[in-house]
Amino acid sequence: MKSNEEVVKLINVSKRYYLSSSVYVDALININLAIRYGEIAIVMGPSGSGKTTLVNIMSTLDKPTSGRVVIDGVDVTDADENYLSKFRLEKLGFVFQQYNLVSQLTALENVMLPMLLTGRYTKDEAREKARLLLDLVSVGEFMNNKPSQLSGGQQQRVAIARALANDPSFIIMDEPTGSIDLASSYLILDLIRLLNRAVGVTFVIATHNMEVASIGNRIIYLRGGRIMQESDLERIKEEFSKLRIDQLAVIKSYLRVLEIDERRLRRLGQDISDIERKRSLIDSLMKTI
């Protein structure tokens, strides 16, 4: 996938919610928007601006009243829920403010679950990859803990590992630091930036938090259901530019994840060019560290 390709495209998208037969609210009005592979796109705006609706439409959790939604080259506007459920599982990653981990499962099992649901991984492959992903987000030692036995920051990192499990086209995040402490917030932001820089993971993040916004390549600012401006936040980015995590440890963990995916793809006789692309990106980043 090339960085100039569009992972999400909204064409003249509007969303109207009817409160009664004659009373309605226009949550989005004629939105035209493209997000490209490798971007960190930040969605901001005051309460009631339409940002939740925009993110829900981009993630196929809601449908527009009018307009078209194209994700990864597929027009999903008129797709039924059975198709969209499978599409979300295979193409999208989700990180919610309240984590949404399965309380009865361990951290390891939570990360394994989306891989097993696709039917593309054996149980051993899913377990091995899940362990590495938990190591990547620095919670590997807690893999056998259930969500209730983890702190908020640890649960959010498990949620990020789960979002990465099926190598999604992009990851949707809703206030990813909204329910965790400051130190954990910095770790989460560092992980997002490093995953984006090292292997080109694409993120769409809805937030009120300017520190979260500072890691974005672009700001999509909504007011009254319309995109008002895309802000340049270079000053804030510089303020929060220093990474606070062990870059080499994270990259080494991700390289091991790529090894698992390469073995699986070779077993299935499938193309490994995306694996090679990610290794090339990592090689380039390593030269700057």
From TrEMBL:
One cellular component term from this protein's GO annotations in UniProt: plasma membrane
Organism superkingdom: Archaea
Bilayer-spanning residue ranges: none
Single annotated GO MF: ATP hydrolysis activity
All copies of domain ABC transporter, residue ranges: 8-249
Coiled-coil positions: none
Entry-linked InterPro entries: AAA+_ATPase, ABC_transporter-like_ATP-bd, ABC_transporter-like_CS, ABC_transpr_LolD-like, MacB-like_ATP-bd, P-loop_NTPase
Name of a matching Pfam family: ABC_tran
Keywords noted in UniProt: ATP-binding, Nucleotide-binding, Transport
PANTHER family, A to Z: ABC TRANSPORTER ABCH.1, IMPORT ATP-BINDING PROTEIN
Name of the protein in question: ABC transporter related protein
Originating species: Vulcanisaeta moutnovskia (strain 768-28)
